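Q: Got a minute? One more chain.
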Amino acid sequence: MMLKLKNVLLKAGCRQADLARALHVSPASVAQIVNHGEWPRSLDVPGLRERIRRFLVARGVAPTSLASIFDVVDQQADVRERIGVFLSAIGADPADLPRVLQAKKVSGPRTNADRSVPQSKSESATESNQEESMILRKKTLFPAARKHFGLFRDPFQDDVLSHEDLYVSPDIRYVREAMFQTAQHGGLLAVVAESGAGKTTLLRDLDARIARENQPILLIRPYVLAMEDNDQKGKTLKATHIAEALMAAVAPLERPRSSPEARFAQLHKALRESHAAGYRHCLVIDEAHSLPIPTIKHLKRFFELELGFKKLLSIVLIGQPELKAKLSERNQDVREVVQRCEMVELAPLDGGCLDEYLKFKFDRLGKSVGEVIDSGGIDALRARLTITTRRDRPDTVSLLYPLAVGNLLAACMNLAAEIGVSTVTADVVKGV
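A: Always. Here it is, folded:
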């Protein structure tokens, strides 16, 4: 379901990574748009389309060429057109196209293929295929692979059962402590990371740490199961819903007042009484990239609930990179929140962190990492999950997040068991 936008980008010499930076979204989100027609549900799609049009016009694309860029490409016709152009370029007669196609049938990319096959050897096509491989499907370790490597459970499946199972790099330690200090002493914090970076694991760790250390902190988490940033796609989380969640946590036996003004006054009173009893309150909103702008603006008013000089409520927002775009300094609609909000990002497992992470994971299972993957295999993992998006001035995107690393290594271990090699080597990684 590729969009015509992809061909327009190629003809204009624009990379998907450039478009992602201009839109303030992740390269993976742009790859989903151009290759599959799947738009981020947490963003305003009409507004996003208009920004794409403005980007293309700024890059020299004629406005008359923008009418159909969001239409789906007829892939068979597209392949035929590319072959016809190629035949003309080498001096062959394009009239030979039917004979060429009959000699080797041309088909569109298979939907079950792990990676699409490049349609040309040009730099832009290679770069496009690298971007398409940024999203890795979930892989599980087969029983045969567990037996082959002498493991009794999957080191990457349901692997964090307590705080002792949590790998802590310097970056993770900083984000982890920032969340705890915000919950304990107050503040407004936004935690931003790609999918699979460990945001939910850190939230579970915060909850467990509060219980383990007997901290007088109430974590209030409104339900976000169907939350979207507009009511056309789902249900928006409004300030009244947040107030209801807070009241249910700090004063569960009180009956909410009927009028909005009375309800918020009731909430303020309940928070003051709970604070006087020695409790601290931390509002945690997961999937915060799906918050509508009006609700983000209202968070400032919750944050300003006070008792003297004491803040009655701290706030932690957890979301994907789209949250960073919503909390941009250039977004005038939320400037009052941005000025009060600290933003931290979960970094990928770059450098030596990947080696330490794998050693930690296998040590937890009583297994030496060297018995599973050699140093060349680790280097190949690192290279496979580091995408180069520019040739003249190299610009890399790291996908070395725990979920992506676990998915790729599980696939490599399954392949190693299938072909009967004792450890995962660089050749095994390249063969996945």
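A: The CA atoms of residues 151 and 366 lie 9 Å apart.
Q: Perfect, thanks.
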